[in-house]
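Re: the pair you flagged

First of the two:
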Amino acid sequence: MSGARTVRAAGLLFDNDGVLVDSTAAVEGSWRAFASWYDLPAEDVLERVHGRRSRDVIAHYASRLPVAPEEAFARYIDACIREFVQVDLLPGTADLVATLPAHGWAVVTSGTKVVTQARWAAAGLPDSPVLITAEDVSAGKPKPDPYRTAAERLRIDAANCLAVEDSPAGLTSAREAGCKTLALLTTHQRGELDADLFAVDLSGVRVSDNGGFEVTVSPPTPGESGPAAE
């Protein structure tokens, strides 16, 4: 890893979508379905979903729904676990997860528990020691609650945790919780992200467990600024 940097952390906190798995097709398909049910502009809906809880996204459209937000949420979640469950592992995920111990790390997602577990099972991933989902916090990303809660569940000071994220909202959440941050350029351009460290994806990250984690990060090359703009 030329030019690699190594940092130490007592805990590792991983976002899910865009970090460990590529659920783009499932996420976009499910939200396009939601938009079609209630005659909402799909592109507007899709601009709001990254790094945010589905309940919060639906609440934004409450005044435009012909049903109660809770009914719309239930219908959306049912569609996610029945029709939009398939995801792909992002580069480096399988190798990195295989090196992690059975303690000291967590997955911190804006998704619901049932959808996250269904998609992890579909991807063939093992359960994480701690899973923080939308149901575990009163305020989702970009508020600090998700990462703060993950650190508390691990019984590790958030300042001693490294959060791995791909979205501006997620990085804001982690940073405000007090975590060190590593941004992956899987869904956003580097210029859109504020983080301590950067990597293209998890294939540029190595983790050693030596009574604490040593995380070696290979930075992007000058030509690797993130996904191409459309």
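Second of the two:
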Amino acid sequence: MFEKFAKDAREAVVGAQEEARRLGVDRIGTEHVLLGTVRTPDTVAARALDRLGVGRADLLAAVRALPRDAIDADALAGVGIDLDAVRAQVESAFGQGALDAEPPRSPRGHLPFDTAAKKLLEVSLREALRYKHRRIDTGHLLLAVARLDDTTAHRVLSSLGVRTEAVRESVAATWADVPVG
């Protein structure tokens, strides 16, 4: 699938790993892919979000504002585990804040994509096919974020007041100004 990625989309995926590492997590989530799409100001995603009044600093602040375990809670909920219930049980046995004792570490080496981030990459391909584009650029990645409303990246956009339809319109307007792929 990566052979269909345009240069900006490949750089966004590499940037997603750097964003995850910078934020001290051990896997790449949808929020890191979203941050990767705007690392360079001239990408389709960065231009489309700029049209909506959202910059890289806004996205980064929204990601950092997420509760540290909110991202993990989403992943665990997907397999039927309620993180709040686990936290309550651990704290009742070991004391308040027992799970917060270890500071986050910056992982080294390759970071894997979580399930939602993998799905985002797959949906970006579907978006390219839907628009009959031969290459996937950061606009397709942003459209996938908008489409997958159960992801952390989608919640980040929503927290900034960005609606799915506004993303679609802005990406289309950006493509009208900038060639696809």
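The chain has a mean pLDDT of 87.

-B.
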